[in-house]
Structures are given as structure tokens and as C-alpha cells.
Amino acid sequence: MAKIGINIATGSLQQAEMIVGIDLGTTHSLVAIIHPESKQATALSEHDASTLVPSVVHFDPAGNAEVGEAAKAYLESDPANTIFSAKRLMGKSYNDLKAQAEYFTYKVIDDQSEALVKVQVGNRFYSPIELSSLVLKELKNRAEHILKTPVSKAVITVPAYFNDAQRQATRDAGKLAGLDVLRIINEPTAASLAYGIGVKKDQDQTVAVYDLGGGTFDVSILHINDGIFEVMSTHGDTYLGGDDMDRAILEYWQADQGLVWEDAAALGGLRLLAEAAKKALGMADTFSVNWQEKTLTITREAFEQAIQPLVDRTLASCAQALQDAGLKAEALDAVIMVGGSTRVPLVKKAVSAFFGKPVNDALNPDEVVALGAAIQADILAGNNKELLLLDITPLSLGIETMGGLMEVLVPRNAKIPSQAAKQYTTQKDGQSGIRISVYQGERDLVVHNRKLAEFNLTGIPGMPAGMPKVEISFMINADGILNVRAKELRSGVSQQIEVKPQYGLTDAEVEAMLMDSITHAKDDMATRALVEARTEGEQLLSVTENFIAKNHGLLTPQEMTDTAQALQNLQMALTMDNKDLIREKAEALNEITRPFAERAMDQAVGGALKGKAI
Ligand code: ADP
Ligand code: MG
Fold first, then answer.
1. Which CATH architecture has domain 523-609?
2. Where are the domains of the chain?
3. 426-464, pLDDT tens digit by residue?
4. Active site annotation includes 511
5. Which atom of ligand 1 is nearest to the CA of 25?
6. Per-residue pLDDT tens over the stretch 11-62
7. Which overall architecture, per CATH, does domain 19-195+365-380 show?
8. CA angle 52–334–504, rounded 5-degree value
9. Is 211 a catalytic residue?
10. Most ligand 1 atoms within 8 A of CB, residue of 278, 307, 349, 363 to mutate
11. Check: CATH 3.20.10.10 for 397-514?
12. Which residues of 420-447 are buried (b: 16+ CB within 10 A; e: fewer)?
């Protein structure tokens, strides 16, 4: 059942719009949705064939673009005006691509080597973002045609190894195509979701996702816990894929059967024959075809021999990925096959032997990524209550301050995006590092909350305690991603980390955490008061001791004795769970030392007493 909404302005009923999942691939792209009746992730299809759209754009002399099968037909006959693999150009400068210049049969422009590349077609220039947007626009049109409803919201997938610039470029391409890109997700994450891994809470799984497409290969090791997908490692070869298998067949025909061809158009046709041979050999033991008075033949055995080196290279990447993740193959719960080229029986056999377990190949390998994107889209649409994805923070976010207290920076129910910052200082003279621990929850002590991340701000130049100004800022973006930054403002030293706070908590868990905070409110308040008193007492103790050590010349013998006594009293009080006693002894010590501080006007003491340390 689709959701029904009421337009407040007009009072009319309207159907909530469907959010689609898009796999924007290097060679093929496609759209999937959660079928409104069956509730199953389904690739959009026309005439019962799934709509795999070749990611190819052809421009006619007037500059009109055609996308998909029609454009692919021009690959050999009009290479200068036919753009394939635009995904490889996303977020890249010419310097990034120099080594592969030969691969592109169209003109990639390098007017400023560090600037982002553009493609020249005739006298027009296109950015990779524009080119990808043309593919997305085509997908959007086809989806609207099939669904008979406007489509303007999407989840788009990208390889796990895409950097920020490449992700942003993908998002921009979506925008340009008239799509509101609700989220960019990793292809291996989408593939796992399609296999139901990570869809339910309480799942703790480690999986390998092996993706062999048309021209690229990558393998990612993911750890999925409580709905959080962590990419532990990723490895691959961005110039290795099914096209290389086709080439291996052509080379075999050349070497073994005296195949020769005269021009590019002939080569184009031969490539298609080679691809057909590759696909046929998945079922048959031998393949034969007539071509210009010749019969070209290849057996499965010869094919497997020809591609064995390619397969071996993918296995070397798998070994590297495992090593980078610090895992042995036995530690994996599942191996997921993605990409059209994993249909090749030898690939399945070799991967399964390498990891020592059967591979997951029940789903269509060129659809799984789009299917997973559709599942993610459905979660975002709020149709899947198992997972929680929100536009407000369900729980407070903060950091641990001295004594294990929770200091909230972004309170619960804050709107996303959101940001907040607070200043802290150091506790000890010359302290060069500060540990920042990020927590989520409503309890006063961090031990009762959920730890999200931890990192160190290091390299703070030597300064007296209380001098450094450490600003901790929390920024939550529209994707619900929290960025925590710590910056020492005097020196500019900074460090930051990204966390995904709301992933993995269900409604019920959030509720339980909130209930806990209410049940324990009274105890928590008392504990917080005690911890605060103790922290302040300890700070005062160390600051005073420090001060005396440095400035004993300023004190009379009587003052020295009084101070020593007051210090001892406070020390005693700190060993007991009595906040009033601690406060009393701290106040007494303060009374005695106040005149010294005034005498010395020591900035460090003043600063340390005022500033709050972590
Ligand atoms: P990408 O993610 O790079 O867009 P795909 O996952 O769509 O790539 O994979 C495309 C590749 O899969 C092509 O090289 C194609 O020849 C190959 N392929 C598709 N079907 C089969 C098959 N039945 N057997 C072998 N290879 C196949
Ligand atoms: Mg792919």
C-alpha cells in the first residue's frame, strides 16, 4: 500500500511519491523499486526484460544526446561523439587519468592539469557530472514511463572506494537530472541489503562483496553490526572486467584460428561476437559462429584457460582485502557476488574455492546493487519500520568530560542538519593531547550511554594547563552523518572524525534508552553532582599543588602550613562519596589560596580554574 497524504493547501488527497534506487554503473545503469503489492525489491522492467541501460551517451552533430542501447550502437562507428564510462571521470583531474589516456576514444580535455576534466564533443564541452546526469535523466524518464507517475527522489549507489569529490559529483549529477538525491550509498552495502544482510537489527556479520563488472573490479570486506555498515577494507582494479574476457576471446581467435579484421567497424562486430561467446559458454561447452566465410570456435576449456590470469588477479585483490581487514577467510559469514561477469562459472568456482564457502549468487548479479538501493529508499520513505532513519536526532549526542560525565552538544530531537560547538581546555601543564569520546544517549554518565567513536587530538603545543582553547564541534549533515572536529584555536591543530549516529538503533531501542534515562533520573542527578564536585575538587588540588611548587617563595611559612593542611583535608574528602563534604573542603582551600592567586596573577591558575577540562 502506498502512503496517502493530504495536501494542506488544497485539501486534496495525494499519493506519497515513490523513492527509487539507482545503480549508476560504469557500463550499465538501472532503476529498482519496492513493488507496492509484493513488497519485494524489483528491477524496473519493460516487456518482462529488466531495463539495464548501457551508460553510454551519443551526441549528434547538433548536440542532441541519445542514451542507452541507441547510443551504444555508435561506439565503434562514431567513437569521438560517443561517451562511455563517464563514471570513471567523476571527480577526476586530467592528472588522475593521464596513465589511462588511451582507454578513452573520445576527447578528454586537459587545459589545466589540476582542474576537473571535461569532455569535448565537436565544439561543445561537457563535465562528467553533465554526462552522468544524462544517463540519470534517461533512467528517470524510463522509470516514469513504466510507473506512470513522476519520479523525483532517489538513492544512488557509488563504489566503496569513491572519495568525497566523486560522491559529491554523483549527487550533483542527480540534481542536474531533476532528482532529489536522498542518499548516496556504497554498492557493496546495497548488495548486502539485497541479500537481507543488515536489514534486521541484532545482526553481526562480516561479508565479502566481490564485484566484477564490465570494466572494473572491486572487493570490499564489510562488517555489519546493528545496522551499521562499516567498510573494513576495499581493494580492486579499476581496469579489469568483462571487457577483458571479451578481448581474451578475440586474442584466442586471432592466435588459434587466424582471425584478422580490417577496420574498427569489424572489430566492433567481433567484440559483440566475443561477448556472445562468453555468455553462451556459461551454459554450453563449446561455441561456434560464422563470420565472413570463417567459422570461429571456442570451447569452455579454452575460454577458462584464457581468462585464468584475469581471475587470478581478482583473487590476489581478495587476499589483499582480507589482509587489510586483518581477517582470515574463515571469519567471513558470507561472500556476495555482484556484477554481470560473476555469471562466468569459473569465476564463481574460483571465488568460492578461495574463500572456502559457497557464494551468494541467488539474485541477478547485475541487479543486486539497484535492488539494495531500492531497499534503502524504502527505509527512507518510512515504509520499513525495522530500521530507523530520521530527520531529527532521536538521542542526544555529546562527549565525555572529566569524571565520565556526558556533556551534551546536540540535544535529542534536534533538527538535522544541525551543528553545535563548545570550548574546553587542558588539565595538565604541557598536555599535548586530548582524547575525545563521542556518545549518544540521555544518561548523565557516559558508561550508561552508547559510545559512537573515539579519537585523539594530538600535537597541542606545550602550554600551561588551562591555556589551550580546544573547540569541539559537532556537525550533522542531511544524511545524518555526524562530523566531530576538535581544534585547538591558539595553534590551529585540528582533528576530525565521521560517525553515523542513528544507524543501527531501532525505535524500540531508542525508547528503551529514553525510558532508562527517566527511571534513573534521580540517581543520575545525584551521581552527576558527586562526579562534578569530585572533578572540580581534583582539579583544584592539582592546580594548587602546581602553584605552590612554582611559587613557594610568595608564601609565608604559616601560609604554607595552612595550605598543606587544607590540601590534605580536600584529599581525604575526595576519597568519600559525599559531595557536600568535598565542596566544603574545596571552598576552604579556595579561601586560603585566593590571596596567593591574586598576588601572583598567574594566568595559568586563573585559566585552569575558569576553563573546563575534558
Ligand atoms: P558495471 O557495474 O561495470 O556497469 P555490469 O555489472 O553490468 O557492469 O557487468 C557488465 C559485464 O557483465 C559485461 O562485461 C557483460 O559482458 C558481462 N556479462 C553479462 N552477462 C553475462 C553472462 N551471462 N556471462 C558472462 N558475462 C556476462
Ligand atoms: Mg556495477
1. Up-down Bundle (1.20)
2. 19-195+365-380, 242-305, 397-514, 523-609
3. 888 889 888 899 998 888 889 888 888 888 888 899 888
4. no
5. 4
6. 333 455 789 999 999 999 999 999 888 889 999 988 766 689 999 999 999 9
7. 2-Layer Sandwich (3.30)
8. 85
9. yes
10. 278
11. no
12. bebebbbbebebbebebbbbbbbbbbbe
